[in-house]
Structures are given as structure tokens and as C-alpha cells.
Recover the amino acids of this structure.
């Protein structure tokens, strides 16, 4: 954001921004919502940004909410770094791998992951950044099926 003046009011599109901030399978949309919320300091925007900072699964989104709150002088602590972004992600990925034929390809696995758990795919894409494709393929290769 480039030196825009912060308005002391609830943004007129607050409901839409709140919906965007709650979409689990769109970290980019959540990040955009945080940046737009950061332009209008109000009790509802502060409350929403604090919730996003505390619970979002993507560190980039949490950090953006933290920066917006700090910019306003809010007394907040930097978000705690977590282990796995989604609990039991390896079990989720293994279930998907087991649901495919034994000789499936990585591309088939990736496609099924997107269809079954777009939230998982999107979260790790946001968390891993440029390393995502390598991480997903390496994880797929290491999953044991019995």
C-alpha cells in the first residue's frame, strides 16, 4: 500500500471483505481483503484483523494483518509461527493418494487434491511459495500406501 490515508470508518464493502477474509481456499483473496481492511480503521476492522492474525492458516496473511494493526498503533504481538498449517495434513494427503489407482501419476494426485481439498492445496501453496510444487511432489513420493 502506498501512503494512502487511513479512514476512520467501516468500509462500505465490509461484508464482502469479511467473506473474502473467511474463504479458506483463497489465500490471495484473504491477503487482498486484509490490505483493503487496513485502509479503514474501525472497531469491526480491528476485530476482524485480530481474528485473521490469530487463526489464518497462511503466514503471509497473518503477517499482513499484524502489520495493518501495528500501523494503527494496536497492541498486538507478532503471530506465532506454527508447525503444520493444517493439522494432520499428511493423513489427508495419504487418504487422497490411497483413493487413486496404484499406478497414478503425480498430476492425477495433484488434480484430485484440488478437487477434494482445495483448502489444503491453497493453504500450502500460500505457505510454501515458490517451493510448493517441489514440496508437494516430494511429499507425494514419500507417502506410503499399504
Amino acid at each position: 500500500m502506498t501512503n494512502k490515508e487511513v479512514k476512520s470508518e467501516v468500509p462500505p464493502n465490509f461484508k464482502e471483505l469479511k467473506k473474502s477474509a473467511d474463504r479458506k481456499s483463497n489465500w490471495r483473496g484473504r491477503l487482498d481483503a486484509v490490505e483493503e481492511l487496513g485502509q479503514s480503521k474501525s472497531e469491526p476492522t480491528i476485530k476482524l484483523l485480530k481474528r485473521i492474525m490469530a487463526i489464518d492458516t497462511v503466514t503471509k496473511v497473518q503477517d499482513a494483518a499484524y502489520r495493518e494493526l501495528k500501523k494503527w498503533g494496536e497492541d498486538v504481538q507478532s503471530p506465532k509461527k506454527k508447525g503444520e498449517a493444517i493439522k494432520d495434513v499428511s493423513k489427508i494427503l495419504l487418504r487422497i493418494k490411497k483413493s487413486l489407482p496404484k499406478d497414478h501419476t503425480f498430476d492425477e494426485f495433484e488434480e484430485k487434491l484440488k478437487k477434494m481439498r482445495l483448502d489444503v492445496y491453497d493453504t500450502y501453496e500460500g505457505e510454501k511459495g515458490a517451493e510448493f510444487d517441489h514440496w508437494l511432489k516430494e511429499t507425494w513420493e514419500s507417502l506410503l500406501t499399504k
